[in-house]
Amino acid sequence: MRPASEFLALMGIWLACFAAGNILAVIIWIAMTGQSIETMAKGMLDAKNVNALKIMQSVSSVLIFFVPAYITARIVSHKPFERLGFKGGLKIDRMMIAIFLMLSVLPFVAWLGDVNKAIPVSAELRKIFDNFESQFENQVKQLAQFKSPLDYISALLVIALLPALVEEAFFRGGMQKVLHRWLVNPHVAILATSIIFSLIHFSFYGFLPRIALGMMLGYIFYFSGNLWYAVLGHFVNNGLMVTILYVQYLKDKTIDTKVGESAPWWAAIISIIPVIFLFTQLKRRAGTKVSFDSIADTPAERSDNTSI
């Protein structure tokens, strides 16, 4: 299968799974709450339905993102997990670099959020964007109900760990790799994947920040060649948000999803320095200490490029 055909297969399967995921979410809603589909939008904001919301979110995420990536990888390879980049032999130094990369870039991402909000749009579009953001924030608040420490762990699983695993499998392990083979230029592939990654989240105010985060994860995968490092970085980003919300709730019994969404320009510039340093370290360590650990330069991948 040529890269273009593989990309079309991935997106075609994604569309089918997207439809199936939404249908399954409705079935789960009706089965767990006994309510009709007409009450679903409003009912998801009711605290008594939080368990149904968690199950819906988890099942639909796996079906929409992981299943298309796995099926496509299985079509073109008899080792689908390796095809997606799931490899063993994780190294502590590279794990720490991935963690600090995601933490270091936060000021720059927050500043991009300010830039994004300053983009002029019409009043009608602004109203639509505000409505999407409000729905997202309300769902996060529902999923992040912290009545006990177990609720915090549950939120980490549903909001942080599961999305990190399934989204990285789809975007970095599936989409980025096939675009890299198709477009040849890895930087273009990473940028294109990050734009699609941001678009699929349907958030205008988070569009530029998510592109930046997607590129961070894309380069972590590109330089390491191991998808688990990107999953770890994604989990750290999401998990930090959940932890901040948990600390907020313990302190004030309130949840503010907008915390940390703003930063001055000078902080954004300063944050780039450790990011560049950490990426040079990741590239050096992956290139010299782990054989076949770079999807950019290994003989196996170069051979793969010519055969697909």
- SS elements, strand count: 0
Question: What structural class should be given to the helix and strand makeup?
Answer: mainly alpha
Measured between the Cα atoms of the first and last residue, the distance is 6 Å
**Which spans of ≥5 residues are poorly predicted at pLDDT below 50?**
288-308
| Assembly state | single chain
Mean pLDDT across all amino acids:
89
Q: How many separate domains?
A: 1
Radius of gyration, whole Å: 20 Å
Order of helices and strands: HHHHHHHHHHHHH
Dominant shape: globular
Largest sheet: none
Proportion in β-strands? under 5%
**How many helical stretches?**
13
- Which percent range fits the helix content? over 70%
Descriptive labels:
308 residues, mainly alpha, 78% helix
Structural description of this entry:
This protein is mainly α and 308 residues long. The protein has one domain (89-307). Helices cover 78% and strands 0% of the residues. Helix 6 packs antiparallel against helix 10 (207-224). The longest helix has 35 residues, at 149-183. The termini are close together. Residues 288-308 have low confidence and may be disordered.
